[in-house]
Amino acid sequence: MTQPTDIRGEHLPAALSLAVSGVPVLPLRAGKLPFGNCRRCTDNACGARPNMKTPGPCTCPYPCHGWAAAATDSNVVKAPTWARAWREAAGVAYHPGGAGLTVVDLDNAEAIAWARASLPATRIVATTRGEHWLYRGVMQSANMVRPGVDIKSSMQYARWLGPGTGAITVLPDVVRALAVKEPAAVRPVAVTVPGPAGGGACPHRTPTYLDRGIAMAEQRITEAREAVHATVYRTFLAVLSTHGRCGCLTDAHTARLFTAAQAKGESPRHCTEAWTNALSRLGL
After folding, report:
1. Per-residue model confidence as pLDDT tens digits over 168-216
2. What angle do CA 191, 195, 201 make, to 5 degrees?
3. What is d(CA 83, CA 9) in angstroms, rounded to the nearest whole number?
4. For the segment 24-76, what is each residue's pLDDT rounded down to a tens digit?
5. Is the pTM of the predicted complex or chain greater than 0.90?
6. Parallel, antiparallel, or unpaired for β 123-126 and 131-136?
7. Phi-psi region for residue 221, left (φ > 0), alpha (ψ -120 to 50) or beta?
8. Looking at the chain, which runs of residues are DSSP E strands?
């Protein structure tokens, strides 16, 4: 005898299984889109910020706010307030960043051929038109990083199309670098700092001292494997605390640090904010 379909939809069992395993899920409607906000949350009237960076932007019980509604609490996922969405759902989506993952979305045969030649092997999930390559690690999401290639990780959702095949590997720098703007786009903040108290020559006796310090700072950022935001800020703070008051830092030095940070996935805006915050912390 055939078992009756759950009244809340055929996709709910899969969603619950994922949620229990720690993968934040949400229902998708036709067109691979999240369900629209409820009346209470229309136009973010609930106070949710358009640039929200963490799930759960409000106390609304409905699956509103797209990727930010993704939940791992099975009581939320199967709640009556989500029932209509599950009945009408065309699929299940998940928040890769919330699951500690990055998805390289390859949309056609050419993109797949590029990935096979350029990226480390990892778990692969077949899609309607291409493949999802899953890596362990979180980064900023970015669309069209190259023809037919999107990156879905933080503040983004991806369709759940099955567990895939192959062993999942650590997110490589080559993928992080895809979201980094070309070096020409790096626009470091001009540094205007006071000279040595009482005037006089720079206390760093030779340019080699400064160059070695900048090189060490670049290396510290490049070798960061986690907490990249914090590492970039602490490195900027260390450089400015040592070299920021003598006036020897130039735009070229700053550009080197910004370029190293962007190669690890930091945006130009995040670099500028970290630099500005370090200046403010030191009173420069």
Report:
1. 999 999 998 888 755 444 454 544 444 433 344 555 556 677 778 888 8
2. 120
3. 8
4. 999 999 888 999 888 888 877 787 654 444 444 577 889 988 888 999 999 99
5. no
6. antiparallel
7. alpha
8. 25-29, 33-34, 91-94, 101-106, 123-126, 131-136, 142-146, 149-152, 158-159, 169-170
